[in-house]
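User: Is it possible to get a 3D structure for a protein together with its bound compound? The compound here is LHPKVLDO. I've pasted both below.
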Amino acid sequence: MYGQIVRDGLVNVTGIEDLGLTSPVLQRTSDAFFKEISPFLLHFGMFVPTIIGQCTPEQQAKWLPLAMDLKIIGTYAQTELGHGTFIRGLETTATYDASTEQFILKTPKLSSYKWWAGGLGKTANHCIVLAQLYTKGVCHGPHPFIVQIRDTETHMPLPGIKVGEIGPKLGFNTADNGFLGFEDFRIPRENLMMKNAQVTKDGTYVKVARHGKLTYGTMVFVRVMLVSDMAYCLAKAVTIAVRYSAVRRQSQPKPDQPEPQVLDYLTQQHKLFICISTAHAMKLTSTWLWNTFTGVLADMRDGNTDTLPELHALSSCLKAISTSDTSALIEQCRFACGGHGYMYSSNLPALYSFATATRTYEGDYTVLLLQTARFLVKSWEQMDEGKPLTPTLAYLEQSRNGSQVSWDDSPEGIVRGFDAVAAGRIGACVKSIRKHINNGMDYEDAWQMTTVQLVGAAEAHCRAVICRVYRDETARLTAGCSPGVKAVLDQLSTLYLLYWALERTGDLLRFSSLSERDIENLQARYEALLLKIRPNAVGLVDAFDFRDEVLMSTLGSYDGRVYERLMEEALKTPLNREPVSDSFHKYIKPMMQGKL
Ligand SMILES: CCCCC/C=C\C/C=C\C/C=C\C/C=C\C/C=C\CCCCC(=O)SCCNC(=O)CCNC(=O)[C@H](O)C(C)(C)COP(=O)(O)OP(=O)(O)OC[C@H]1O[C@@H](n2cnc3c(N)ncnc32)[C@H](O)[C@@H]1OP(=O)(O)O
Ligand SMILES: Cc1cc2nc3c(=O)[nH]c(=O)nc-3n(C[C@H](O)[C@H](O)[C@H](O)COP(=O)(O)OP(=O)(O)OC[C@H]3O[C@@H](n4cnc5c(N)ncnc54)[C@H](O)[C@@H]3O)c2cc1C
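Assistant: Yes, that's possible. Here is the predicted structure of the complex:
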C-alpha cells in the first residue's frame, strides 16, 4: 500500500516519456499522504530518470525493475562539500582496476564528501555517484556510477562507506539530505552508467555520446520538470491567499459601512492576481518546454544533438526565473494573509521553504542565467556572421540595426516590446564585452565584467519567451472555448503583460518609443483590469481544483472556516495538553521566587 502511494504520487509527476507518460503532470495526490517532502523524492525524481537516461538497455533491464518496485531505494549524489556548481571541480575519484575489473571509489579529503543528496542520510540503500573517472592513469572527467551503500537486509552502511544526515535546514527537513564518503570502496565495472561512455574490461575508455554534456541529462530533465512544479506550488499558494482574502475583513475605508473583504482592496488584488496569472503562464510555458524537451530527445535518438544547446539555454533560464518568481510570489501570498499567513498551519511557510530551495538546487539562479547568456551572446555573434538563428531567438533579427522599436500597446505589441528589450540588452552585453576586449582585456575578464548585465539580458530573454508563449498558447487553447472563458483567460494573460511592462518601464523607455503618456495608459489599464478580474478571483482559484487534503491549509480550505480551523489546530498543539506546563514548576516559579 505504502509503496503504491509512493509510486502513484511520484511516478505520475516525473513524466518520463519512456514510462509511457506524455506531459509533466501538475497535480500531486501524494502530498495529501506525506504532508511534508518525501525522502523518496530523489528516488523517483532523479535516481530512476538517471537510470533511464544514462544506462545501456542491459543496465536498465537490471536496475529499472528493482528501482520501480522499490526493491532498492536510490538517490543522486553529485554535489560535494566543496563543489556544487562547478561539476568539473568534483573531487571524488573512481579509479579503474583492470586486475579485478572494479572501480575504486575514494573521497580524498573533507571537501570531497558528497553533501546534500535527498534521502541519502537515512533512507537510501543505493545512490548515483558522480565521480572523476580515472583509467590507465588518465582522468576523463565526472561520470555517473550506481553504488550500493547499505545492506538491503540490515540497512547498515557497507564497509568503506561513511554516511549520515547533514542536519536541520530552512526547509526540506523530512528529506534526510545526507553526506557520503568512500574509503577505497570497490564497485563492479558494470556499475559505471555506460550509455554515454564505457570502460572495457582492459580499462580502455570509449566515448559513445556525440555531445560532451549528455552526462548532465538528468539535470536538464529536472529543470524542465521544476517549471511545471513551480506552477503547481504557486497555484496552491494563491488558492490559499485568495480564499482567505475573501473571508478576511479588515478596516473601514468609508464611515458607516461594514468592513470590506480584504480582496476588495486594489493593493490586495495587485498582490494576488499576478500570482493567478503567473501560475497559468508557468503551466503553459512548462508544457511548451516539455514539448521542446521531448523534441530534442527525439532528435538525439536520430543522432542529432544540434538542438541541445537551445534546450539547455531555455531550460536554464526558465528554471531560474520560474523558481525565483515563485518564491517571491509565494512570499507575497504570505504577506497577503497578514499574521495568519505566518502560521505553519496556513501551509504558506512550507510552500515557501520548498520553493526557495528550488532557486538554488539543480543549478543556482545566477549560474543558470549566465549559461543562457552564453548561448545568447554566441547567437548574436553568429547572427553577425550571417548564420541562421534558432527559433526562440528569431526576434534578434528585427533588432539588429539597433533602432528603437515603436511602442504599440496592444498585447501583441507589448510582446514585441519585450523582444526589443531582450534584443537591446543582449546587444548591450556584446558591446560591453567587445569594448573591454578592445581596451586590452582577455575574453574571460571582459565576460566577467559584463556578468551583471548578462544576468539581466538572460532574464529579459526569458521574460520575452514566457510572454510570447503565454499569449500564443492562451489564444490557441481557448479557440474553441465559450466567450466567457476566453475573455477571462485573455484578461489573465493581458494582466501578465501589463504587470511586467510596468515593472520594466526603464528598459522599455530605453529600447522602444514608450512615452510618459504610454506609461500612464498602461497603469490605468492595469488598474481597470484588476477590477474586472475581481468577481472571478475565487472561481479562478477554485478552478485549480485542489482538494483540501492536498492544500493542507487552515486559511485556504474550500469551506472558508478559517477561524474555526485556526482554533482547532491551536488546540492540538502539545503545549495546550496541560493547563500548566512543567517548565513553570521547574524554572519559572523558582525564578520568580529568586531561587534561580
Ligand atoms: C510529498 C512528497 C512529494 C514530493 C514531491 C514529489 C515529487 C517532486 C515532483 C516534481 C518535481 C519535479 C521534478 C523534480 C524531481 C525531483 C527533484 C527534486 C529535488 C531535487 C533536489 C536537488 C537535486 C540537485 O540539486 S542535484 C545537483 C544539481 N547540480 C547542478 O545543477 C550543478 C549546476 N552546474 C551545472 O549544471 C554546470 O556545471 C554548469 C555550471 C551549467 C556549467 O559548468 P561549466 O564548468 O562552466 O561549463 P562546462 O564546461 O561544464 O560546459 C561548457 C559547455 O557545455 C554546455 N553545457 C553545460 N551544461 C549543459 C547541459 N546540461 N546540457 C547541455 N549543454 C550544457 C555549456 O553551455 C557550454 O557550452 P558552450 O561551450 O558555450 O557551447
Ligand atoms: C534543498 C537542497 C537539496 C539538494 N539536493 C541535492 C541532491 O539531492 N543531490 C545533489 O547532488 N545536490 C543537491 N543539492 C545541492 C545543489 O544542487 C547545490 O547547492 C546547487 O547546485 C548550488 O551549488 P553550490 O551549493 O555549490 O553553490 P555555489 O556555487 O557555491 O554558489 C554560491 C554563490 O556563488 C555564486 N556563483 C557560483 N559560481 C558562480 C559563477 N560561475 N559565476 C557567478 N556566480 C557564481 C552563486 O550564484 C551563489 O550566489 C541540494 C541543495 C539544496 C539546497
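The chain has a mean pLDDT of 94. Residues 266-301 form the longest helix (36 residues).
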